[in-house]
Fold:
Amino acid sequence: MVLSQESTPDVVNQGCYDFHLSELIRQRAWVEIDQNALSHNVRQFKALLKHDTDLMAVVKADAYGHGAVRVAQMVLEAGATWLAIATLGEGIELREAGIMAPILILGAINTPEEVRAIIHWQLEPTLCNAEQAILFAKTLEKQAKKLSVHLKLDTGMSRLGTSWQQAINFVQTVKGLPNLHLASIYSHLATADAPDRTVMEQQQHRFEAAIADLQKHGIKIPKLHLANSAATLNGPKFHYDLVRVGLGLYGLYPAPHLRSQIDLKPVLQVKAKISQIKMIPPGTGVSYGHQFVSDRETRLAIVGIGYADGVPRNLSNRLQVLIRGEWVKQIGAITMDQMMLDITHLPHLPVGEVVTLIGTDGDRAISADDWANTLGTISWEVLCGFKHRLPRIII
Ligand SMILES: Cc1ncc(COP(=O)(O)O)c(C=O)c1O
Structure:
């Protein structure tokens, strides 16, 4: 079986068969990643920062559904100097791919096995309290190695971290442990995307009060960081030594009122192909539960993408897609691997036609924000829904 004999860089030789890879993976459903858009977004964020403020690219959750390894390589090439992930496994995936940049684990670490893996893979952990610091120090004693650690203060998110009011005890414990190098102190903001800055500024005041207290106790202040995408766009007073940017790098705005601060381009497009076309008479039920029943003769297109690929089932009968620049309605329940479209108004479409679920087609576009608004959720969740089953093609 020879699918293509073309000799382009993305031809993969598998045994005696030649697969033209990008053609093969475009047969069903896929994600396209626009490298130029990603680099543009990195440059846009860099342009907001002082020359000595680092850009940490948050590539957790498989780079928000974009593919962690390739995104990490591309953002580092474009000017980011740090990476952040949530779990140990995500960090190991990047190291196994040969990525050497400093990697901060944002999640909590609680067992000696995890500590040993962190040391082995040269990852940098977040310490949320003194107990974790002691666990790290004990495990390191046996290894006779020094590890850079990042301390998390809770200034109002009420998630990970030691209360800002107990920062002194926490930091002094860490300073007293010779195998730990205090690399940074950070906190995370709960409402940076809200137009009302009151809570964000209260959190910043608490962060600064804790730092001032440390200074009074003669503690040398390491790197400080506080900002996610939204806080970064709220102005330089939130930037400190490093900003941790996720959503914005992928070309989405954390909130409508922050749009004027930066020009971002969406990085991801989701596409699929029509796999079958048929006519159904009036009164025909479509898909599980017959949630849709045709009221006229309908030209039905079956498309090879479903909720197992990251198209939420809750979008059933509420989703619009684009084909040849025209709006097309999705009808009936979205199933695990497939969905149905009403293409009655486009009678000449053939099987194999490309459907854009997220992205631009002609003058029209659909964004992760559109899906999020329909679903009553946030674009972060929509993006994270696109899992490994959808191959990613870098454009
Ligand atoms: C601790 C921390 N910092 C930064 C970010 C990046 O946030 P955003 O995607 O809004 O830029 C996240 C994401 O959830 C986070 O948990």
Remarks:
- Residues 58, 106, 188, 228-230, 244-248, 254 surround pyridoxal-5'-phosphate (CB under 6 Å).
- Residues 1-19 have pLDDT under 50 and may be disordered.
- The radius of gyration is 24 Å.
- The longest helix spans residues 198-216.
